[in-house]
């Protein structure tokens, strides 16, 4: 007499089916589009719609009153022939490069140090992060008063600042802009590097110590390679922020002396709210968006950040 084979059910299959049935019964699973709808609507209303309006206005002539008049590429041709515009674009790129060159090494060193367990590290880190809590306007007003050539620190330390008028020369004014931006925004990038440095596995340092590597070699051969993705992220933020810097220039130098610190963002403000040429101002704004996007994409592409390779392979 033969017995029919009884099919066996694997325990794994049972658990999988049980999980599926429980998810279907409770309705718990991957979040649907409804969860992203509020953010998508917000982004569309306050980012995409204004961007589309700026694109349209860049091909018109409009002084803020009446109806915009379509002029085609007239705004763009005028900007390309405008020496102040060309100079402001190069100045924006120059200030951005200076910001990256100055802030990146300082932020990395401070971030790696803040990730350690030194005595009083938490207190010193908290004090250092205070500028991050202040608004750009408040910081600019503060340093404008501190560096005032008549009543500020330079007037009392002529042995260091010469005549005390740091805003009277292009080099001095640019130095002030770079210093103030570094003072305020370095804590943000330090915070990024602090979190990334704490995520580096300690086993890498322990293995390096066994091999006889000192602190400096560990920093250059372990810490920096592990911070690669964080460095790219930080630099992209610096590039976008540097190209769109406006508040600091408006309060500290107002584009002076002359037009020596008139960057593209401040020139856009002048075109829109002083010359009432909103068409040309929209063209400048669109140009800034294009330049910032292209530079950011080039950085991501050249550094391999878009492929998101793991920095902890073999751990």
Automatic annotation (TrEMBL):
The chain crosses the membrane at residues 33-59, 89-114, 126-146, 166-185, 231-252, 278-300. PROSITE patterns: ABC_TM1. It is a multi-pass membrane protein. The keyword Transport applies. It holds the Pfam family BPD_transp_1. Residues 89-299 form the ABC transmembrane type-1 domain. CDD domains: TM_PBP2. Its main location: membrane. It is found in: Cell membrane. It comes from the Bacteria. The keyword Transmembrane applies. Residues 1-29 are annotated as: Disordered. Keywords: Cell membrane, Membrane, Transmembrane, Transmembrane helix, Transport. Belongs to the binding-protein-dependent transport system permease family. This is Sugar ABC transporter permease. It comes from Streptomyces tanashiensis. The lineage of its organism: Bacteria, Bacillati, Actinomycetota, Actinomycetes, Kitasatosporales.
